[in-house]
Amino acid sequence: MTANARCCINPSILSADFVNLQAELDRISTADAVHVDVMDNHFVPNLTIGLPVVERIAQVSPVPLDVHLMIADVDRWAPSYADAGVHSVTFHVEASNAPIKLARELRARGSKAGMALRPATPVEPYLDMLDELDMLLIMTVEPGFGGQSFLDVTLPKIRRARAAIEGSGASVAIQVDGGITAETITRAAEAGASIFVAGSAVYGAADPAQAIEALRAKGQLALG
Ligand code: DX5
Ligand code: ZN
């Protein structure tokens, strides 16, 4: 269904050693981007890093930054992340009062615009705004923690989103995040995702570069 799409593997530093971030970034230099999970302990029941740390990561990272904001009041805070020179900023639609305005603002500041949906958030209300987005993140676990199991219940939503994107002619990549392993990546790719976030499957491996290659091979095989 996603014929000829390129498979991207974005390791999540949520599963990295936060005391040695520079070394941890260097271990994934063959990745397509680094997925940076920002959590505020309000939108999700966990707390990670904020803007100053993301700005510093952007300065030293060997790969582009894919910032995933799991924060409340995101209309107010997301634009500053785009200003940090990152590749993409993804906000949760459940946390935004004005997602179209926000997506436009992110693009105007030079970042790709991503919009995320929790597992139980339907995609249908947002199909008219696909042109405003570069990426749709369909969460495949409840956001907040790494190491959870992939929710197969999200697969039909990925398929419907992919069909709607192809029907609209918009150029929007589908990203999946949560529980992506060498086993689940095939199902997610067959459903229509092409950008895969993997935290524990990469940083939990003895050789992260090898884990990235193995995931990429499986994902690309399923994408055709
Ligand atoms: C969860 C985060 C994910 C997480 C994925 O809320 O958004 O990016 O790090 O971790 P794994 O791959 O271990 O499920
Ligand atoms: Zn994430």
The radius of gyration is 16 Å
Backbone shape: globular
Count the helices. How many? 8
User: How are helices and strands ordered from N to C?
Assistant: EHEHEHEHEEHEHEHH
Please report which band the strand proportion falls in: under 5%, 5-15%, 15-25%, 25-35%, 35-45% or over 45%. Answer: 15-25%
Let me know the largest β-sheet: 8 strands, parallel
* Level-2 CATH architecture: Alpha-Beta Barrel
**Spatial ordering of strands, largest sheet:** 1-8-7-6-5-4-3-2
Q: Which stretches are poorly predicted, pLDDT < 50 over at least 5 residues?
A: none
Describe the fold and architecture.
The chain is an alpha/beta fold. The chain has a single domain, classed as Aldolase class I (TIM Barrel). Helix 3 packs parallel to helix 4 (99-108), helix 5 packs parallel to helix 6 (184-191) and helix 6 packs parallel to helix 8. The protein is built from eight helices and eight strands; from the N terminus they run βαβαβαβαββαβαβαα. The radius of gyration is 16 Å and the shape is globular. It has an eight-stranded parallel sheet with strand order 1-8-7-6-5-4-3-2. D-xylitol-5-phosphate is lined by residues 12, 14-15, 35, 37, 68, 141, 143-148, 177-180, 197-201.
Write the layout of secondary structure elements.
Blueprint: E1 8-11, H1 21-26, E2 34-39, H2 51-60, E3 65-70, H3 74-83, E4 88-92, H4 99-108, E5 112-117, E6 135-139, H5 155-168, E7 173-177, H6 184-191, E8 195-198, H7 200-203, H8 208-223
Parallel strand pairs: 1-8, 2-3, 3-4, 4-5, 5-6, 6-7, 7-8
Helix pairs in contact: 3-4, 5-6, 6-8
Bound molecules: D-xylitol-5-phosphate and zinc ion.
Residues 12, 35, 37, 68, 177, 197 line the site of zinc ion (ZN).
